[in-house]
Design brief:
homodimer; five-stranded antiparallel β-sheet; Arc Repressor Mutant, subunit A; binds manganese (II) ion; DNA-binding; 8 helices
Amino acid sequence: MISEAVENYLKMIYELQNETGKVSTNALAEKLGVAPASVTGMLKKLAEERPRLVNYERHHGVSLTPAGQKIALEVIRHHRLIELYLQQALGYSWDQVDAEAEKLEHVISEDFEDRIDALLGQPEFDPHGDPIPTKGLQLARPDHPRLSELAAGQSGRVSRVRDDDPALLRYLAELGIIPDATLTVAGKAPFGDTLSVRVGAESDSPSHTLGRPVTDQVFVEIQGK
Amino acid sequence: MISEAVENYLKMIYELQNETGKVSTNALAEKLGVAPASVTGMLKKLAEERPRLVNYERHHGVSLTPAGQKIALEVIRHHRLIELYLQQALGYSWDQVDAEAEKLEHVISEDFEDRIDALLGQPEFDPHGDPIPTKGLQLARPDHPRLSELAAGQSGRVSRVRDDDPALLRYLAELGIIPDATLTVAGKAPFGDTLSVRVGAESDSPSHTLGRPVTDQVFVEIQGK
DNA sequence: TTTCTTTTTTAGGCTGGCCTAAATACTGCG
DNA sequence: CGCAGTATTTAGGCCAGCCTAAAAAAGAAA
Ligand SMILES: [Mn+2]
Ligand SMILES: [Mn+2]
Ligand SMILES: [Mn+2]
Ligand SMILES: [Mn+2]
C-alpha cells in the first residue's frame, strides 16, 4: 500500500519537474517541509520499490519512472477534482480549497473520484486554472506566459494562477483576476517590475498597479491586439 | 496533534461502552483488528496523555475521561454526517457509506463539517438511523428494542439498523427494512429464533421470514397495537 | 483453596518517516 | 589545478504503532 508520505513525495517531484526541469534533493526538502537528509532516505526507498517509482543516483537528482508518474497523476487528479468540488458544491472560496484538498486527496476512493467527476461534468480545470488529468491520466499542459512577461499593450485571458498563497489568491479575487478574466497591460514601469493592468474587456475597465510578486504568479493566454 | 489511530481507539471505546457496558482489552483488539498486546500499549499512552484521555488500570478495563469522550463524539459526528452526505449528495447506497466515512472522518476540517451540516439541514440521524451528535456534542440515545425481542402481533417503526455488514444492509434494503419503515411481527417460530415479519403499514404488505442474525441487527420503536 | 483456563500484560523487535551532526561529493572560481 | 562553498549523503537516533512469544494475573471449577 502506498502511504500518504510517498504520494506527497511523488506529487512534488512531478510538480518540480514541470516547473524547473531538474529536481534536487534540497528543493524537494523545502517544498515538503522536511530535512534534506530525510529526502535522501525516502528517495532511496522509492528507487528500491518494486516496481521502481523513481530513477535516482546519488548526487544526480531524481526523476519519476512511468509507475511513479502514474501515481503522481492520480494524486493530482484527486487534488484538483476535490478543489473544484469544494468550490462548486460546498461554497469554498478559491483560497481555502488547497489546504482541504491536500488531506482529502490521499483518502478518497476511486468511487468518490468518479462520482464528483460526473457531478462536475468531467471538468477540465480546477479553480486556479490548473488542468485536471483525465480518468486515463492524460494531462493538458497549456504553458502560457506569465503576466510579468507581457509587453505593454498586449492583452489576453487569464488561464491560470499559482495556488500557493491564500492571501495572494484573496487579493487577486478582489481585483477580478481569476481564470477567464480579460487583462490588458496598459503600461510598464522602467525595468519592467511593475505593470499597470486593466482588468476586464471594456476600455473603461478598472486598472491596477501590480508588482512582480503578483505578476509572476498569473499566467495569461495572449489574445488579439 | 491527535493521530488517526488514537481517534479510532477512542471511538471504539465509546461504542463498546454503549453496547456492552464494559470495555475489555480483547474486545477492543478484535474491533480494531489489532493484537491485544498493541491495545495494552496504546491504552497506557492514552492514560498518560495530558489531559488524560482514558481511565485505565492494569487488568481492570478502560473507560473514557471527559476529554476522551469529547474526541470520540467529534469523530462520531464526523462519521455520521459524512455518511449521510455521501448518501444524499453523492448518491452512495447505505452499505457503501461506512467504509468511505471511516477514512474521511479523520481528515475533514471543522469548516467542512459545518458546511455539510448546514447543507443537510442539521440532520439528526445518519442513513442507518444512528443519531448524529450536535455541534455541541450532545447525543440522543433512543435505545429501542431489537426486532428479535418483539412479541408476535407487535408492530413499530424501524429506528435503526446496525451498519457493520454491507451484505446484510443490501439484503435489508431489498426487503424495505430501512429506518422509518413500518414492521409487524406476524408470527414467531418456536424458541423465537425465527420471525415472520410484515414490512409496510398495509395489512397486505409483503411478509418475510427472518432469522436471528437479521432480527438482532434491527431496532424497532414499538407503536400502537 | 488449589488448579486450570482465559485474559491481559511484559519483553523484545520491526517498519516507516522523521531528525541532527558529521562526512563527502560536486561546482565554480581564482 | 586546487580550494571554498554548497549540496548531498551517511551515521546514529527518536517516536508512533504495530507484531510475537512468554510471563503473570484473574476468574472458574473442582
Ligand atoms: Mn497531500
Ligand atoms: Mn489548484
Ligand atoms: Mn476511522
Ligand atoms: Mn452509520
